Amino acid sequence: MRVLGVDPGLTRCGVGVVEGVAGRPLTMVGVGVVRTPADADLGHRLVAVEQGIEQWLDEHRPQYVAVERVFSQHNVRTVMGTAQASAVAILCASRRGIPVALHTPSEVKAAVTGSGRADKAQVGAMVTRLLRLAAPPKPADAADALALAICHIWRAPAQNRLQRAVALHSSRAPRTPHAPKGRTP
Amino acid sequence: MRVLGVDPGLTRCGVGVVEGVAGRPLTMVGVGVVRTPADADLGHRLVAVEQGIEQWLDEHRPQYVAVERVFSQHNVRTVMGTAQASAVAILCASRRGIPVALHTPSEVKAAVTGSGRADKAQVGAMVTRLLRLAAPPKPADAADALALAICHIWRAPAQNRLQRAVALHSSRAPRTPHAPKGRTP
């Protein structure tokens, strides 16, 4: 599966595309940052984020988009911008019918380093190792976007089983005992 | 001037269009609510908000869009949804080149009632009176959207003067003593 990870932000929105399946070596397809000028007004910044995300979707055609789930426990001003940039990324993917998954920062850290409290350097080091890169991607937002994509690939089998179960339950269809049990990719 | 006011929200996004200029009786052009199902996933909800706002822009062709400025002091879950819905509204307007203004809830309340701490009923009553309506618009989100539009019409002359001054300053052009001094609408 091919996943676009998005570490949302107005000033720097990290984007990274990873291809692979859980249990096999992963491949980095692309990594970068969508930037918008801090002195531009909010509307122009959101339009720039939209254009940037659209370019990444056009170029790399991901099957899934993984976006960092935003919490408001931190700096209020930053969090608002982050929530608004994430809304644009989620909107762009959903408009195309691409499934969007949200992962918390600690889920992402735990997925790639084994600890939900790992620091930026540790995440960068593991992303470099897991994707067999020559050096950690810079800036940290770009590395975080790749970590999100990796996290999604590794967590996806469980999430897909859960989504399938929810869909089965809400359709109220009688369960078929002969339904295929294989993991969907 | 014709202004679309947007009281952002994922479950109910209030929208109201008001036409007029400061110092003259105002006219309500339209009012309504864009709703999205609470059980739908975030991506589908943001797409539905986008479609709703686009319809209002298509139908009413406002010259300005006034959106409530979101603060994160309240309920964290609600605030994230509000910030994300507001991002979509701001994006839709900015994509079309329509200027977007943000007004805080207390600015809006103060504009229409004289007090920044007025309650919903008071805002609804003043919106009804100022727009000469038969009854207060329901739900409160719709009345709030109209109040935002009214607030923008009344505050706009001052804001436009400020924006013009900032633009002059940042272009570093020598000031022309003969520049027209009239208020831009």
From TrEMBL, chains A, B:
Cofactor(s) required for function per UniProt: Mg(2+)
Keywords: Cytoplasm, DNA damage, DNA recombination, DNA repair, DNA-binding, Endonuclease, Hydrolase, Magnesium, Metal-binding, Nuclease
Sequence positions that bind Mg(2+) 2: E68
Enzyme Commission number(s): 3.1.21.10
A Pfam family hit: RuvC
Co-factor binding comment: Binds 2 Mg(2+) ion per subunit.
Annotated CDD domains: RuvC
Electron transport as UniProt keyword: no
Residues that span the membrane, as ranges: none
Subcellular location: Cytoplasm
Catalytic residue list: D7, E68, D141
Gene3D superfamilies: Ribonuclease H-like superfamily/Ribonuclease H
Residue ranges of the region described as Disordered: 165-185
General function of this protein: The RuvA-RuvB-RuvC complex processes Holliday junction (HJ) DNA during genetic recombination and DNA repair. Endonuclease that resolves HJ intermediates. Cleaves cruciform DNA by making single-stranded nicks across the HJ at symmetrical positions within the homologous arms, yielding a 5'-phosphate and a 3'-hydroxyl group; requires a central core of homology in the junction. The consensus cleavage sequence is 5'-(A/T)TT(C/G)-3'. Cleavage occurs on the 3'-side of the TT dinucleotide at the point of strand exchange.
Similarity remark: Belongs to the RuvC family.
Subunit structure comment from the entry: Homodimer which binds Holliday junction (HJ) DNA. The HJ becomes 2-fold symmetrical on binding to RuvC with unstacked arms; it has a different conformation from HJ DNA in complex with RuvA. In the full resolvosome a probable DNA-RuvA(4)-RuvB(12)-RuvC(2) complex forms which resolves the HJ.
Protein name, per record: Crossover junction endodeoxyribonuclease RuvC
Organism: Streptomyces violaceorubidus
